[in-house]
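FAQ

Q: What does a record look like?
A: Structure on top, sequence underneath. For example:
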């Protein structure tokens, strides 16, 4: 049993409920309610006019991210922590009112009209399927490198102090095996540089991906062939993309679908049979390449008893859910074992 977490406090809470690690650490949430300078750096990076200016802000961001990574890894005391690289579309981080954009323009010493133009260009019609996750890592490789360096330096420094840590670096929204290859090459390069800096042979970690697209389920063995050491099924987005339903907008019709018997259950509450088939196929194909591949789930379905039992029967190693759902998921997992025996 693992938990989905956004802060070290979340991790500590879930441990009290019996969680045995973090299955999804959402790195972007450090920018909400944390040090305002971290968000300011990110905003300047997004709206900077050239690569040099962007990299300057990425370098400033590093210390904030490293501090957050170190605090979380230390709090988990050797339990695995799956850290998702930056996932949301960049437009979610920037201010949308002129007052906020003018402030960034002054900090960048750039005309307001130019900053406004850059901000407008980030607008997307369908951001959940837009420029996010691994796609950001491909177009902004410096962001991936900064996050990975922060994770590995934090882990390496804690290890040298005798503190057990085990980070798992997760690349989100992968759909194409060459995306994976691109990011893994960056990660390997950063690992080599960090080891040289710290004077160690290696920093213990794993690298894997979040399975959120139907295509990733269908080509899962190719992702393992590219070096994926673990999978975590992000069933919230996988359900969205399988049905073509928006998780945020189904309220307008789902009640009638359920009342009229068109659907037996809300697919965002309990795993649908079509999504289950994709998950089964993904697990089966990938385990043919690596029988010991670590596989888990980190969507909110990880706290649904029926979905937890499915995860057990399909051979997953763990489920991860929000802290307050951990006790329910633990009970469901125990019931699944008893029923199988």
């Amino acid at each position: 049993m693992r938990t989905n977490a956004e802060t070290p406090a979340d991790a500590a809470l879930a441990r009290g409920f019996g969680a045995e690690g973090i299955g999804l650490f959402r790195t972007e949430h450090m920018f909400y309610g944390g040090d305002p300078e971290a968000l300011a750096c990110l905003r300047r990076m997004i709206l900077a006019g050239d690569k040099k200016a962007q990299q300057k802000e990425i370098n400033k961001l590093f210390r904030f991210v490293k501090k957050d990574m170190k605090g979380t890894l230390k709090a988990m005391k050797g339990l695995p922590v799956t850290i998702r690289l930056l996932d949301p579309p960049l437009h979610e981080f920037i201010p949308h009112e002129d007052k906020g954009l003018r402030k960034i323009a002054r900090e960048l010493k750039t005309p307001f009209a130019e900053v406004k133009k850059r901000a407008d260009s980030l607008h997307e019609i369908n951001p959940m399927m837009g420029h996010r996750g691994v796609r950001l890592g491909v177009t902004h490789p410096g962001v991936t490198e900064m996050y990975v360096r922060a994770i590995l330096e934090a882990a390496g420094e804690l290890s040298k102090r005798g503190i057990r840590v085990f980070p798992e670096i997760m690349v989100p929204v992968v759909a194409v095996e060459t995306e994976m290859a691109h990011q893994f090459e960056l990660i390997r390069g950063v690992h080599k540089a960090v080891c040289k800096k710290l004077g160690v042979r290696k920093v213990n970690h794993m690298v894997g991906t979040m399975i959120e697209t139907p295509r990733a389920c269908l080509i899962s063995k190719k992702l393992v062939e590219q070096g994926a050491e673990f999978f975590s099924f992000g069933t919230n987005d996988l359900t969205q993309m399988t049905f073509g339903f928006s998780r945020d907008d189904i309220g307008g019709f789902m009640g009638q679908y359920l009342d009229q018997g068109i659907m037996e259950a809300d697919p965002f509450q309990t795993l649908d049979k079509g999504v289950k088939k994709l998950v089964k196929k993904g697990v089966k194909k990938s385990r043919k390449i690596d029988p010991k591949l670590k596989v888990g789930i980190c969507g909110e379905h990880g706290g649904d008893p029926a979905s937890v039992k499915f995860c057990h029967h399909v051979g997953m190693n763990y489920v991860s859910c929000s802290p307050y759902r951990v006790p329910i998921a633990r009970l469901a997992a125990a019931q699944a074992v008893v029923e199988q025996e």
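Q: Is there anything notable about this one?
A: The longest strand covers residues 166-171.
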